Amino acid sequence: MTAPVDMTVPIRSVAIAQWLRPTHPDLAAVEIGRRHRLAGGVGSPLVERVEVTPVGSGGLRARFEVVAKRASSAEVVALREIAAIPGADALPELIDAGTDEFGPWVVMPFYPGSTMPWDAEAPEAVFASLARLHFRHLGSAGSLPADLPRVDETYCRRALTDFAPSWLRKSQRKDPHPMHDRALSLLNRWSDDERIYAGLDVLPATLLHGDAYGLNVVVAHEKSLPPRLIDWGGARVGPIMLDVAMSAERSSAGFSAYLRAWEDVAGCPFDPWQAEAGHAWARAISNAMFVGAVAERFSPTHAEEMLDQAEAALHRFGRLLAGHSPGRP
Fold first, then answer.
1. Is 144 left (phi over 0), alpha (psi -120 to 50) or beta?
2. Which 8-state DSSP code applies to residue 1?
3. C-alpha span between 246 and 130 (Å, rounded)
4. Per the domain annotation, does 52 fall within a domain?
């Protein structure tokens, strides 16, 4: 029998010490303790919670936990990029990262708390942090590393003709519902809809989390601590509102928090046309993309609501696009 492959992520004491020293100036040593397996994300074969103990020069000990994760190269790039964004408290810290024979890996703090329901709107702090992230990389999307996937025509077409239909057919086999045929028909039409691809030309691109919804938000048990937007395995470069429209309506507190934070960091308001058109396009493509996954994981009824929203959003984007002057930002 072949021995199991040891894919554990290395925990380097030097990196842990560097992370801890600002709060433990008398740090003399770092002890690495037990590992506890966690449920990994879709793209991660291994995620562990690891105990680390800083030992002070006087022998005083404390206990912390970190997350060691087998990551994608896109996740490593994204976590390195967000580390330099001031005031974005809801974004996770990066303690260490590297690559070995099994691929890229990251080590981050463990944030105790609970994830939100999948369809819940994230806290305002998450949207404020995303605004700071998006503004920082606005206009520099082309210079971001090639390891980050791009939301381009190929990406959108595959989402509509492959990714979403595969989930729909899986759901249909498990729980047949009229929604499945309707969804497959709409996705087929939308894959050739000029409005889908026009959005890529008129909406500004930036660095995205790529999957900013409830299950990727950890709300701390201690109310004084900020929520954290975790699991950056879906990081990519694409239109700004893809990170916002997935869980926030334009009338929501989260959307308002995003606009306030943008104005704070940019020194001017977010362009109203870009906000409305970007949200409409992003709601249409994200709902279409994930309608199958929602049908399979939750229910066809929830998926049908997403289809209704996608149809309405794409129609709204078409109207906004028709009235858009090419000279406008």
1. beta
2. -
3. 13
4. yes
**The token pair that represents 121 in the structure block:** 């709107």
Same domain, 55 and 141: no
- Alpha carbons within 13 A on the beta-carbon side of 163: 17
Contact 32, 14 (CB under 8 A): no
160-192 pLDDT, tens digit each: 999 999 999 999 999 899 999 999 999 999 999
- Residue position matching structure tokens 């990262």: 97
Paired tokens of 208: 């995205």
pTM of the entire structure? Answer: 0.91
d(CA 235, CA 216): 13
* Contacts for 186-192: CB closer than 8 Å, 24+ residues apart: 186/288, 186/307, 186/310, 186/311, 187/160, 187/161, 187/288, 187/291, 188/160, 188/161, 190/160, 190/288, 190/314, 191/157, 191/160, 191/161
Distance of CA 149 to the CA centre of its chain: 13
Contact 115, 272 (CB under 8 A): no
Instruction: Report the candidate in 283, 302, 284, 286 with the shortest Cα–Cα distance to residue 294.
Output: 302
Kindly tell me if the per-residue pLDDT of 228 is higher than 50. yes
User: 135 with 262, same domain?
Assistant: yes
